[in-house]
Amino acid sequence: MKIFKHLSWFFKQEKKAYISGIFALFIIAVINLIPPKIMGDMIDEISSKSLTKESLIISIVILLVNAALIFVMRYVWRICIFGAAFRLERILRLRLFEHFTKMSASFFQKYRVGDLMAHATNDLKSIQRVAGAGVLQFADAVMTGCSVLFAMMFGIHFKLTLITLLPMPLMIIGSQLLSKRLHTTFTVAQQAFSSMNNRVHESITGVKVTKTFGQEKEEVEKFHDETMDVYKKNMKVVIYDAGFDPLIEVIVVLCYIFLFVFGAQFIQSGEITVGNLVTLVNYMNMLIWPMLAFGFLYNTIERGNVSYERIQNLLIIKPDIKDKENAIDEVPSGNIEFEVKKFTYDPKLKPVLQDIIFTLPQGETLGVVGKTGAGKTTLIKLLLREYDHYQGTIIFGSHEINDYKLNSYHAAIGYVPQDQFLFSSTIEDNIRFGNTHASHEDVIAAAKMAAVHDDIIGFSEGYDTVIGERGVSLSGGQKQRIAIARALILNPEVLILDDSLSAVDAKTEEMILEALKENRKGKTTIIVAHRFSAIKHSHLILVMDEGKIVERGIHDELITKDGWYGKIYDQQELYEGGEHHE
Amino acid sequence: MNNYDKETFTAKEQLSVLLRLLRYLKPYKGLVFLAFVTVIFATVFSLLGPMVIKDIVDTAFVDDMVKMDIVYQKIALYAGVILAFALFRYLQTYQFNNIGFKVSQNMRVELYKKLQNMGMRYFDQTPAGSIVSRVTNDTEAIQDMLNNVLAVIVSSIILIIGIMIAMLLLDVTMALICFLFLPVAIFVIYLYQKYSTKFYLIARDRLSQLNTRLAESISGMNIIQLFNQQKRISDEFEETNKEYYDASMKNVRLDGILLAPTIQLLTALALAILFSYTGLNSLYGSVSVGVVVAFIEYVYRYFDPMFQIMERLSIYQQAIVSAYRVFKILDHEELTPQQNENASGSIKEAKIEFKNVSFSYDGEKEVLTNISFEVNPGETIALVGHTGSGKSSIINVMMRFYEFYQGEILIDGKSIKDYPIEELRSKMGLVLQDPFMFYGTINDNIRLQNKNISDHDIRKACEFVQADTFINQLSDGYEHRVIERGSSFSTGQKQLLAFARTIVTNPKILILDEATANIDTETEVLIQEGLERIRRGRTSIAIAHRLSTIKDANKILVLDKGKIVEQGTHDELLSQKGTYYMMYQLQKSEENDNL
Question: Do B421 and B428 touch, CB atoms closer than 8 A?
C-alpha cells in the first residue's frame, strides 16, 4: 500500500477523475446486485405462478435501465481512471526526461542507456498499472466483493452464503502459489529469451566474421540449441500458467456443490426458494473476479513499489555540476588560463591529470597530442565543465569557469566529440542543432567550411537527407565533418576538436584546417589529435603522457628535441606516406 | 514507404498471410489434432454444466419437495463434468502453447538459417536492429497469437455453436431470440476491429517513436547540454509524449464504448427480452423453471466468447504484421553467391588471377571495370586508392560476399566458383578493418566455432602475432571474458586478436583490410609488426591505407573509379611520377613543410 501513499500527490492532483471513477465503480457494484435478485424473484413468481403483467413490466424496465446505467458508468470509470493513469505515465516520463537533461557526465557513465530506457519504459508502465488497473482492482476487490457478499448474506441467506464461500480462500491460496511458481519460471524463460536476443544481435552485427570463417552451419546449429532452450523454459512456464483457469473452475464447482447440497436442505426446510438459489449462483459468479483481483492487486502493488523506488532513486540524484549562487550570466571571452594540479575520476585511483598548466591567449590555437589514455580527452572534459572536482583553477576571460552560468559558459564553446554522435533527423537539422534560427545559407556555409558540402549535395535529398537507422548511413568521415559543421555554425569563442579529424583523409584535413584559419580569426581553437599534421600549425603544442605534460612548444621546436614527439613524428612520416582512408 | 513498415492490409492480403502462417502448423499435425480434440472436449464439457444444473432444478425441486437423493446424484455428475472440463482445459492450454512455442522456435531457426545464407548486400543495407527484431520479436508476436488467439477462436466458435444447439434443444423460440443478437455482436466486433486496429497501431508507433527519441537523447545528452538545447529537446520530447498519450486515450475511449460495455449491454438486453417472453408465457401457461435457469447461464456464456475474441484482436493484428515481415525475409532472393555444381578440389599453391573482372552493386553503376592482375604464390599485392575507388569491392568479390558478373577469378588456374565454399573459407583468411569481438573468452574469440582448434594452437597463434604479451598480463589469461564487444581492449589489441583468429586456421591466402582511424602511432607499430609476420609465406592481397607499409609489396595496384590506373613496385610507381607519386608526395611534402 506504500505505493498509494507515494502517489498521493497525483491522486490529489487528479481528485476529480478518481472520485468520479470510483463513484462510478461503486454505482456499478451496487446496481449490479439488482439483476440476479430480480431474475431470482421472477423465477419464483413463474414457478409459483404468481407473476403479474405489472410486476413483469416493472422488472424488465428495471433490468433495462440498470443495463443502460452500467454501460454509462463503465465508460465513465474507464475514461476517468485509465485516463488518469496514462496522464501519470506521461508526467513521470517527462519528469524523468527533464531530469536526464540536467544530469552530468558521471551520471551517464554510471547508468547505461539500456538501464535508463528500462526505467522510462517498464518501470513507468508498472507505476501506470498501479494508478489504473491497481485502483480498479482495489475498488473491485473491496467494493464489488463487499457488496456482493453483503447482498448474499443479508439479502438471501446468511448461513448458506458462508457455507457456499468456504472453498473461496482456496482460490486465493492456490492462485498465489501458482503465481509464485509462474514468476520464477517466467524469469528463467525471460533470461533465456534475452540471451537469445543478444546472440542474434551479435551474430547479425558480426555476420562478416561468420561468413569469412565459413561457420554458417555451426552458427545455425548453435542457434537451434539456443531456441530449443527458450522453448523448453517457456513450456515450464506453461505448466503453471495453464493451471489458472482449471483451478478457478474447480474451486467454483466446489462452491456449487456446497451451494446445492446445503441449499437443497434449506429449500426443503422452507428457508429459501429455488429463485433464491439461482440468485446465489449468479452472485457467486460475480465474486470470482473480486477474489482474483485481490491476487492481482498484490502483484500490481508489489511491482509498482519496486518500480517507484527505482524511479525515485534516479530522480533524487543531484547533478554534480550546477550553477553557483550569483553565477555570472555572461558568455565568457578572452584568454584561457589552465592550472590544474590534480584531477582524478575516482579518489581510489591514481590521478588522471597532474600539473597541467598552460595559458591559451584568445585567438590562438592549442594542439594536444599523446598516447591513448594520456589524459587528452580528460583535459577537454574539464574545459567542458563535465567535472569540477579538480584541484586548481581554470580561468576563461575574467572569471573562473565555474563562476559562469552553465548555459552562458556552454554558449562560448563549440565542441566536436570523438564519437561523431549525430541525431537521426535531417542533415540540415543536425548542422543547425545548436542554433535553430540559423538560415539555410548559414548551414551551407558551415558545411562548406567543414568540407562536407560536396558530400551532402551528392545525396539525392541533399540537406534534407535523413540520417540514422531509418535513413542513409554515413561514413565515419562524413559524420565527423557534419559534427564539425554543427560546431562551426555557432561561431563559438572556443572551438574544440577532440580527435575529430581521425577519419578524414589528409587532403580534406588540410582543407578544413585552412578554412578554420581563415574564418576563425581572433577566436580560440583547441585540437586534440593523433596525427601531427592536424596540430603542427598550432601556437602551442602540449605532449601528454600519463596525465602530465611531458613536452611543450611549437612543432618546429618539438621535432628537433629528442623526445616522444620527435620519435613519433619520424614514425608517422615513415608510415603516412600517403592517403588517409576514410 | 519502406516495405517493412507496412502495417495495414486488405482482407485478401491478411488472409494469404494467415494461411501461410497456418502452414507452419503442418509439421505438428499430431499436436494440432490433439489440441483440437482437447478444445472440443473442454468446450463440450463446459456446455454440459448448465444442462446438469437445469436438470437438478427441474427434477429435484418439484412442488416444494426436495429430492435429496437426486440432488446428490446430479451434483456428483456435475462435479464429474466440471472436473473433466478442468482437465481438458488444462490440456488445451498446454497443447496450444506447445504449438505456439514450437512454431516460433522453428520459425526462428528457419529465419536464422536464411539469414546466414543471405548475401552481404542485405546486411549492408538493412539496419542490424531491424533484422534482430524480425528474428526475436516478430516470431514472438506470432507465437503469442498461436498460444492465445487460436485456442480462443476455435473454442469460441465451438462454444457458440454448442450453445446454439443447447438452446435449440431447450426452447426453440427462446433460442431464436438469442440468435438475433449474433449479427449485432458480429457487427460490434467488426466495428471494434476496424478502429482498434488503427488506434492500436498508431499508439504502438508513437510509443516506439517516443522510445527512439528517448534512447537517442540519452546517448547524445552531452551534445544536447553543450549546445544548450535541453529546453528544446524536452519540448520536442513532450510533444511526442503527448502524441502517445492522445493515441492511448483514443484506445481507452474505444474500449470504454465497444469492448466490454457493449457486450454486457447486449447480454442484459438478451436477458430482458428472454424474461419478457417467458414471463408472458407463464401468464398463459406453464414454463419450465429449469429451462429459464439454464438459459440465464447460456446467455452469459453465449456473449462471453465474443468479448474474448475482441480482447485478442490486437494480438492477431500484430501477428499478421509480424508474419508479413518474417515472410518478407524468407522470400528474399538475394542469397549469397552460389558455387558451381560439382565444385571440388583444394587450393595448393594459392596463385590468384583476376581476369577482366567487372562488378556492380546495383546492376547499373559499375564499381569494378575489367580488373586483371596476378599474384604469385607467396607474394603480396597491395591495393591503393581513394574511397570509392573499388578496393573494398575487390575484397567483396574475392571473398564471394558479392557475385561478380563478368570475367573470372582463378585460384591455381581454376575458377573460384569451382571450389567448394568450405575450401575457400578455410584457405582464405580475411582480416577486417574493424575487428569484431564476440561475447565469450579470448579462447572463444580466436577459436570461434571450429572445434578442431586446440588451446595449444590458440596459444601458438597468439605468440606468433605477439598478442601473448598482453594476454598473459590478464589475470585469467586466455579465459579472460571479452565484454561489450571488447571495449576493455585497445583497438590495437583487438586487431592482434583478429590476426590470431585468422592465423590459427592457417590460411594459404590472406586478405587484409588495414585499420586506420583512431589508432595512435605506437599501436600502429605493433600492428604493422603483426601484419608483417602473418604475411610471411602466404599469398596476400592487402588494402593499404599507409603507403609505407606496402613499400616492399611485390606489386602495387593503384585504383581509381573501379579501374587499375597504375601498377608496379613502389620504386617503379614513384619513378612513373603518376597518381601514386602524387599520393605519396602529398603527405610527405606536408610533413616536410616545417623541416
Answer: no
**pLDDT confidence of residue A579:** 37
CB < 8 Å from A in window 92-151 of B? 93-94, 97-98, 101-102, 104-105, 108-109, 112-113, 115-117, 120, 123, 127-132, 135-136, 140
- Domain extent, residue B576, equals 352-594
With cell 585552412, the residue in question is A514
State which amino acid sits at residue B168: L
Q: Confirm whether B335 is domain-assigned.
A: no
Task: Please give the C-alpha separations between residue B282 and each of A42, A51, A52, A178, B311, in angstroms, as whole numbers.
Answer: 10, 8, 9, 48, 38
Of A208, A510, A571, nearest to B432 by CB-CB distance is: A208
CATH of the domain at B556: 3.40.50.300
Q: From start to end of A426-545, where are the E strands? A: 494-498, 524-528, 540-545
Q: Where are the beta strands (DSSP E) in A407-447?
A: 413-416
pLDDT, tens only, A201-255: 878 877 877 877 777 888 888 899 999 999 999 999 999 988 888 888 888 888 8
- DSSP SS3 for B173: helix
Q: Kindly state whether residues B316 and B396 are assigned to the same domain.
A: no
CB contact under 8 Å between A39 and B275, yes or no, is: yes
pTM (two decimals): 0.77
B376 and B470 assigned to the same domain? yes
CB-closest option in B252, B278, B524 to A83: B252
Mean pLDDT of A373-394: 89
Q: Based on the domain organization, do B388 and B470 belong to the same domain?
A: yes
Per CB-CB distance under 8 Å, the chain B contacts of A264 are 60-61, 66, 68, 71
* List of chain A residues whose C-beta atoms are within 8 Å of the C-beta of residue B490: 372
**Which of A228, A253, A311 should one mutate to test binding to chain B, selecting the residue with the greatest count of B CBs within 10 A?**
A253
Amino acid at A256: Y
Across the interface, whether the CB atoms of A476 and B517 are under 8 A apart is answered: yes
Q: Taking CB atoms and an 8 Å cutoff, what residues of chain B touch A507?
A: 586
Nearest Cα to Cα of residue B243 among B191, B195, B199: B199
Number of structural domains found in chain B: 2
d(C-alpha A299, C-alpha A178), whole Å: 12
Q: In chain A, which residue's Cα lies nearest the Cα of B447?
A: A213
Q: Quote the pLDDT of residue A89.
A: 94
The Cα B112–Cα B326 span in angstroms is 11
Tell me the per-residue pLDDT of A491-545, one tens digit each, with 9 for 90 and over. Answer: 999 999 988 887 777 778 888 999 998 888 889 999 998 778 888 889 999 999 8
Contact B266, B187 (CB under 8 A): no
Contacts of B153 (CB under 8 A, 6+ apart): B309
Touching A: B residues 219-238, CB under 8 Å = 219-230, 232-234, 237-238
Closest CA to A178 of A259, A298, A355: A298
Cell triple for residue B242? 503527448
The CATH number of the domain where B87 resides is what?
Answer: 1.20.1560.10
State whether B298 and B366 are in the same domain: no
Residue of A41, A545, A579, A582 to mutate, interface with B, max B Cβ within 10 Å: A579
Q: Look up the ipTM and state it.
A: 0.83
Q: ∠A262-A173-A2 over CA atoms, to 5°? A: 125
CB nearest to A212's CB, from B71, B387, B430 = B430
Residues B441 and B555 in one domain: yes
B132-136 mean pLDDT = 85
Query: What sign for the dihedral angle of Cα A480, A481, A484, A489?
Result: negative
Domain identity same for B360 and B325 = no
- Using CB atoms, pick whichever of A93, A219, A413 lies closest to residue B449: A219
Q: What is the pLDDT of residues A128-185, one digit of tens each?
A: 999 998 998 888 788 888 999 999 998 888 999 999 888 888 888 888 888 888 888 8
